[in-house]
Design goal:
The protein is α/β, with parallel strands linked by helices. Helix content is 24%, strand content 22%. The protein has a 7-stranded mixed sheet with strand order 6-7-10-11-12-13-14, covered by helices on one side. It has a 4-stranded antiparallel sheet with strand order 4-3-8-9, with no helix packed on it. The relative contact order is 0.11. GO terms for molecular function: transferase activity. This is Metallo-beta-lactamase domain-containing protein.
C-alpha cells in the first residue's frame, strides 16, 4: 500500500466500506515505516507515495442500512459501516465529497450523485435506511452512490461503478455527458442479480449495445443470468471480474503530430516529463 495514493468508496454499504479498514491500516503502516527513510533503503515495488493515503468518501454516511422484507416489512439490518474516526489513521486523510471532483493530479474523476433518468432503472426494491427518528425508511435509490472514471489516451473513458444501484445505463449516460467522449470500458458490479432485478436485463443489455463500449467487465452483483446475456451481446468484449485480477487499459500509441505537440508542452514522446 506504500505506492497507492487513494481509495474511493462508491456508496455506504458495508460489503464495500469494511474493506477500507484493512486498506487504511496497511497504508498507514507503510507510510509510518517509510517516513524519513533514504530512497536507497525503501523496499522494492511501486514508488512510495509521500503524501497521505486519501480515503475519498461521500459525507452522507447513514447510521445503518438494511432490507425491509415480506408483508410485515420486517427490517433486516446490515452490519455497521466503519466510522470516519476508525479510518483516520496516521498517514491517512479522510476527504468528504458530495460534488464531482478529480483525484491524484486530475488523473481520475469522481462523480457526485448520479442523475436518474432511465425509466427502467428504479433502484433496489426493499432497501432501507435507519433514520434519525429511529425508524426504518425505504430508500431504494441510494442517492450518494458515485462512480470513478479515467480517460485513456486515444481510446476514450473507462468508468468504474462499484455496484450500479443507480443503474449502469444511468452511470454510463452521465459519463458520456460529463466527458463528451466515447465510453471505452465499463467496469463494475451491474447489480442485476436476483428475481427482483433480472427483469431489467434485456433493456440494460439493449441500451449497452447502443452505447457500444469496447470492453465490459461484470463484477459480483451482476448475476449469472446477466453475465450470460452480456456474453451473447458482447462475445469478444465481455469478461467477468475476478478477485485479485489485474486489468490494464493501454493508451493508443502517439502519432507523429501528437509527439511533436508533447515535446512542445515539455514531455518526452513516451509521455514522461522532460528534465
Amino acid at each position: 500500500m506504500a505506492g497507492v495514493g487513494a481509495a474511493v468508496l462508491s456508496h455506504w454499504h458495508v460489503d464495500h466500506s469494511v474493506g477500507l479498514l484493512a486498506a487504511a491500516r496497511a497504508a498507514s503502516a507503510a507510510r509510518v515505516a517509510n517516513q524519513g527513510r533514504p530512497e536507497a533503503e525503501l523496499p522494492p515495488g511501486p514508488e512510495p507515495v509521500q503524501e497521505p493515503f486519501v480515503l475519498d468518501l461521500h459525507p452522507a454516511r447513514p447510521a445503518r442500512r438494511g432490507l425491509l422484507l415480506g408483508p410485515s416489512q420486517k427490517p433486516v439490518p446490515f452490519n455497521v459501516d466503519p466510522t470516519l474516526e476508525q479510518l483516520s489513521l496516521p498517514g491517512c486523510r479522510v476527504d468528504l465529497h458530495a460534488s464531482p471532483h478529480t483525484l491524484l493530479g486530475n488523473r481520475f474523476f469522481v462523480s457526485g450523485s448520479i442523475p436518474r433518468i432511465v425509466s427502467f432503472e428504479t433502484g433496489q426494491p426493499g432497501h432501507a435506511t435507519l433514520g434519525a427518528d429511529g425508524n426504518w425508511h425505504l430508500d431504494p435509490y441510494i442517492m450518494e452512490e458515485r462512480y470513478l472514471a479515467v480517460r485513456v489516451r486515444g481510446r476514450g473513458v473507462v468508468v468504474f461503478s462499484g455496484c450500479s444501484h443507480a443503474g449502469i445505463i444511468n452511470v454510463v449516460q452521465n459519463v458520456k455527458e460529463v466527458s463528451g467522449e466515447h465510453v471505452f470500458g465499463v467496469v463494475g458490479g451491474l447489480h442485476l442479480a436476483g428475481s427482483k432485478m433480472e427483469g431489467r436485463i434485456p433493456e440494460t443489455v439493449a441500451a449497452l449495445k447502443e452505447i457500444d463500449p469496447d470492453r465490459v467487465f461484470g463484477g459480483h452483483c451482476t448475476g449469472w443470468r446477466a453475465k450470460a446475456a452480456l456474453v451473447a451481446a458482447f462475445p469478444d468484449r465481455f469478461q467477468p471480474l475476478s478477485v485479485g485480477g489485474t486489468y490494464t487499459f493501454l493508451a493508443a500509441p502517439l502519432g507523429e503530430a501528437q509527439k511533436a505537440e508533447a515535446l512542445v508542452e515539455g514531455q518526452s514522446p513516451d509521455g514522461e516529463a522532460l528534465p
